[in-house]
Design brief:
Layout lengths: L12 E5 L3 H8 L2 H13 L1 H7 L7 E10 L2 E10 L9 E10 L2 E8 L29 H10 L7 E5 L2 E7 L5 E7 L2 H16 L13 E5 L4 E3 L5 E3 L3 E2 H8 L13 E4 L2 E4 L7 E4 L2 E5 L16 E4 L14 H18 L4 H8 L12 H4 L2 H11 L12 H7 L8
C-alpha cells in the first residue's frame, strides 16, 4: 500500500502522479496483452465479485442492444443470481453509447471505491484472493496508459466515494490523476442526471457518485498526449469496444453446450473459443494459425478457462507448462464426471496420428485414476468389440504385425 495522502476539501484538487515504471511494461507487451489492459477497466468484474462476496459461478451477465437510426446502445449488466424475476438486483453494468459507430463507454460497479494507493506500482487489493484474476498491482495503471496513449488517445475519468478523478498527461508527459472532492449539491445533481438517464435508456440503475465506482471512457475533449502535446481526445469505435469485450469470457454469448462448466474450470467447445486460454474468465492468449496459445507451443484442440492459478509477469500464460497441463487434465476429469460421453473426444486426442495436443500434455504421468478408468471402460466397450490395442513401442517391435496384445 502506498503512503498516506490527505484528501482535499470540497472543491479543492489533489494531483497524484501515476507511477510510470508501468510504461516500461506496456512497451514490451503484445497486442493481445493490450486487450487485457483494456479489459481491466472494461469488465471491472473483480470489483463486483469482491464488493458482493460472489463466487465466479454466481457472476451472471445479461446483454442488451438497441439501435435507432445512427445511434447504438449496448449494455452488459450484472445480475445477482437467486432473486426472483420480480425483484432483480443489478450489481453493475458496461454501457457503450455511440453515434455513427463512435462514442463513450460507461462502466459502473455498485458499492465499490477507487483509492489513491491503487495508483502506486504494486498497489492491489487482490493478493491472495482466489476468486480474482489479478495480483500484480499493475492492471489499472496499465489500462490507463494503454487507453490514453498513441492511437487510442481516449479520455478517462472516474467518480468514486464522492470524488471526481480526471486522468491526463502533464506538459512533461507524466501521467497524473487530478482528484477533486465533489460538493453535496454536485453529488445530488449528478445522481439526478443519472436517474433521468436510466429511465430512458437500457441502464439497469442510476449510478450514485458517493457510493458507486464509475469510469467514463472516450469523451471528446481536450487533453495532452504522452509527449505533453495538446490533443483532442478520440471517441471509442464500435469495433474497438467489441474487441475489448472479447478478452472477457463472461461477456461472450456461449451457445448451448459450447461451454462445459466444472469446479475446476470450463471446457470451451465453441469453434470461436477453441484455442483460447482464459484464467478466471480473462483471456491469457488466443491461438493463431502460426502460434499456439499453449506455453508448450503444441496445438490446442479445445479452449480452456482455468479456475485457479497464477500468471507469469507478462500475463500471457500460467506460471509454467506443468501447471498448465495439470489444469487442463483437472478440467477433463471434472468434465467426464458430468459428461461421460466426452471421453471419445479425449480418446481421439490421445490416439491422434497428428502432432500431440497441448490439451493432453503431461497425461502420461499426470492423468488421475478416475480418468484412466473412464478411458479403459470406453476402449473396452461394445463399440470396439473384437479389437486389440497396442502401444507405439510395441508396434515398432512387431514391424508388419497388425496387432500386439498389451
Amino acid at each position: 500500500m502506498g503512503t498516506a495522502r490527505s484528501f482535499p476539501r470540497a472543491g479543492a484538487e489533489l494531483v497524484i502522479s501515476v507511477d510510470l515504471l508501468s510504461q516500461v511494461v506496456v512497451l514490451r507487451r503484445a497486442p493481445l496483452a493490450n486487450l487485457r489492459a483494456h479489459a481491466h477497466i472494461i469488465t471491472r468484474r473483480d470489483g463486483i465479485i469482491k464488493a458482493f462476496d460472489l463466487a465466479e459461478r454466481d457472476f451472471c451477465v445479461v446483454r442488451e442492444e438497441k439501435t435507432s437510426g445512427r445511434s447504438t446502445e449496448i449494455v452488459y449488466k450484472v445480475l445477482r443470481i437467486g432473486g426472483g424475476d420480480d425483484k432483480k438486483e443489478w450489481l453493475g453494468y458496461i454501457r457503450f453509447k455511440a453515434l455513427d459507430g463512435e462514442g463513450t463507454i460507461d462502466i459502473t460497479n455498485r458499492s465499490a471505491t477507487l483509492q489513491p494507493w491503487h495508483l502506486d506500482l504494486g498497489g492491489t487489493s487482490k493478493a491472495g484472493d482466489a476468486n480474482q484474476a489479478g495480483a500484480h498491482g499493475e492492471g489499472l495503471k496499465i489500462a490507463l496508459l494503454v487507453l490514453m496513449r498513441g492511437r487510442q488517445n481516449h479520455s478517462v475519468r472516474c467518480r468514486s466515494g464522492g470524488f471526481g478523478w480526471k486522468f491526463n498527461f502533464t506538459t512533461r508527459g507524466r501521467l497524473v490523476a487530478r482528484l477533486r472532492r465533489m460538493k453535496p449539491e454536485a453529488i445530488d445533481k449528478a445522481q439526478d442526471q443519472a436517474r433521468r438517464l436510466s429511465e430512458r435508456t437500457l441502464l439497469p440503475f442510476a449510478a450514485n457518485p458517493a457510493l458507486d465506482l464509475q469510469f467514463v471512457i472516450g469523451e471528446a475533449q481536450a487533453g495532452r498526449n504522452e509527449r505533453g502535446e495538446k490533443v483532442r481526445r478520440s471517441q471509442v469505435k464500435r469495433e474497438d469496444f467489441d474487441a475489448w469485450t472479447k478478452a472477457a469470457l463472461f461477456l461472450q454469448d456461449g451457445r448451448d453446450g459450447a461451454i462445459i462448466s466444472t469446479e475446476d474450470g470450463d471446457l470451451l467447445t465453441d469453434p470461436r473459443l477453441c484455442g483460447h486460454i482464459y484464467l478466471k474468465g480473462l483471456l491469457l492468449r488466443a491461438s493463431t494459425p502460426t502460434r499456439s496459445a499453449s506455453i508448450t507451443a503444441k496445438p490446442l484442440k479445445f479452449g480452456y478457462n482455468v479456475a485457479s492459478g497464477t500468471t507469469n509477469r507478462e500475463r500471457q500464460s500460467v506460471s509454467g507448462a506443468g501447471e498448465e497441463g495439470q489444469a487442463f487434465l483437472a478440467i477433463w476429469s471434472s468434465v467426464l464426471a458430468n459428461r461421460p460421453e466426452m471421453v471419445s473426444e479425449l480418446d481421439a486426442m490421445l490416439n491422434t496420428t497428428e502432432s500431440r495436443y497441448a490439451d493432453i500434455s503431461g497425461a502420461k504421468t499426470g492423468m488421475n485414476f478416475a480418468t484412466a478408468c473412464r478411458l479403459q471402460e470406453y476402449l473396452f466397450g461394445s463399440q470396439f468389440a473384437g479389437k486389440w490395442y497396442y502401444c507405439s513401442e510395441d508396434k515398432n517391435k512387431v514391424g508388419t504385425a497388425s496387432t500386439a496384445l498389451i
